[in-house]
Amino acid sequence: MLDRFSSQADLYARYRINYPPELYAWLLPRVPGRERAWDCATGNGQVAAELARHFAHVEATDISTAQLAQAPALPHVTYRKSGAEHTPFAAASFDLVTVGQALHWFDMAAFNQEVRRVLRPDGVVAEWGYGLVQLQHPALDALLRTFYADTMRPYWDENRWHIDDAYARLPFPFGNVAQARFPVARQWSAAWFLNYLRTWSSVVKYEKQHGHDPVLRLTDELTQHWGPGEREVVFPVFARLGTV
């Protein structure tokens, strides 16, 4: 798994959304134990921090040292640098494994094998992500789709497109499968939204190759349509879980 997010770790911590309480309310009652959880690809630790409210201990891993540096220090959370597919954890050591907005970057066969190894009997694996944000305005949504699917297309890793079909093509060899969706609405200014775009791995890749910020190409038009105030944006969060 390549590190695609270290260079924008500070932007990622500030401008990426957190996940809604409804997601955890759907997930946690399905987990039989509350001793140990592993948040894989934890990034800046937002999921690990929430899990720490419910589990005696949380292990939070990521391949990005810069991302981990943004995570809050918490007494019941251990952060460590580790890939998703091979970890230092003992077999049958977790009640829950979570992955938020990162599964599409993994070697799925190796990751699923690792999940089966580290989960306890009847343990739960939960995976979620969110698709292209919806701006609730025809001109803005058209501008965003063009930037996402045309301008940025050569700079997205191919695995990114698994987000568009909510991981439907990624194998999930677990039992008692459940799925859910959670629209997440936020009120954002145009400036905030443009900085969110700068967290995209494709934008970072473009800037590294060409030496300038591609977000500037749509700034004037987007700002004009957006207007001076805040506007509602909606992130379509999707989730699935299963048991070993």
Give unreliable regions as ranges. none
End-to-end gap = 24 Å
CATH class of the domain at 9-133 and 157-184 and 234-243: Alpha Beta
CATH architectural grouping of the domain at 9-133 and 157-184 and 234-243: 3-Layer(aba) Sandwich
Major sheet details = 7 strands, mixed
The total beta strand count reads 7
In CATH, what is the homologous superfamily of the domain at 9-133 and 157-184 and 234-243? Vaccinia Virus protein VP39
Rg calc: 18 Å
Discrete helix count: 9
User: Beta-sheet strand percentage?
Assistant: 25-35%
Shape: elongated
What fold name stands as the CATH topology of the domain at 9-133 and 157-184 and 234-243? Answer: Rossmann fold
SSE string, helices as H and strands as E: HHEHEHEEHEHEHHHE
Mean pLDDT comes to: 93
Structure report:
The chain has 244 residues and is an alpha/beta fold. The chain has a domain of 163 residues: Vaccinia Virus protein VP39 (Rossmann fold). The protein has nine helices and seven strands, in the order H-H-E-H-E-H-E-E-H-E-H-E-H-H-H-E. Helix 6 packs antiparallel against helix 9.
